[in-house]
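# nightly structure sweep
# worker-07 picked up a monomer target from the shared queue
# config: single-sequence mode, recycle default, output format = structure tokens
# input follows
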Amino acid sequence: MKAAVLCEQPGDLEIEDLRIDAPGPNEVLIQTKGAGLCHSDLHFMEGLFRTPLPLVMGHESAGVVEAVGSDVSYVKPGDHVVACLSIFCGQCHRCLSGNPHRCTNIRATSRAKGAAARLERDDSTEVGQMARLGGFAEQMLVHQNAVVKVRPDMPLDRACLIGCGVTTGFGAAVNTAGVGVGSVVCVIGCGGIGLSAVQGARVAGAGRIIAVDMTETKLETARQMGATDTVNAAEVDDVVTAVKDMTKGGVEYSFEAIGLAETVQQAFNMLDIGGTATVIGMVPSKTKVELRGIDLLAEKKLQGSMMGSNQFRSDIPMMIDLYLDGRLMLDEMISARIDLEQINEGYGWMKAGESNRTVITFD
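# output follows
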């Protein structure tokens, strides 16, 4: 099968023909139909986060089950599924306490040490899978707890977006922060995750949603998706001042969807008394964020969000229902559809800020 492989950091992806094993116990073989280009993969391509190589990238994918291994009872061949990197064991205290997105029991959902590799080159070199998924490939071989079965009338080239970006942004607003009806919200960064946070705030009933970005086309898309106000960060002297002036004091909820210290600090500093700033973006591991300690006495909070605090086997079908009912916009988020061979071009658009979400389609 063809797959996009990261061979060095920093580096572009290389299209390789790889061998894929038959599904083992609890494993599912999937024919990939759609895969979204996510900024998280770009961070690894740029070397901001280190990882063992070679590695099939991609973690925002959907497809059709081709085959299942022994002990698989959740899906069968022919089922439509969305993959999610919040792979859960279902046995640890995090899973059993209602937080499967925090599961760290990787051994329970991976092949045993010394077992045959899921993916390898013709010379038997093992090739890893980004987030244990490896979605930039014609096929995926994953644990059954990495997928959710979805209704067959959902287009898979749109369903794939819910596997990561939409779940992360929408869930940050609805699950992590718990945006309430009538709330005043600001979202910094209007890529796929930020736009999903805007939509989550809208669905939750926020009264005012301010979107911040430096690209006017992205701000226009944010307005389509529910933003009531926009701020072009390239056209104001100070984003925090602009937002505080608009709201006469600050926002109740802010969301950072870029992954920079500067924008994290902006998200915190624009809060009203008692407000909560939620960081969704991947801030590089060596980056430090500075806050004024005195602001904590105003009961302002800074928190992170891991994959939208999801329970994806219930959350993703719910979001698919919202899409098919016309209440969640996905088509408007897709800037382009490409072939696997165009993947580096797609990431070039992302680096230039010229795309919201690019989707790879597999015929």
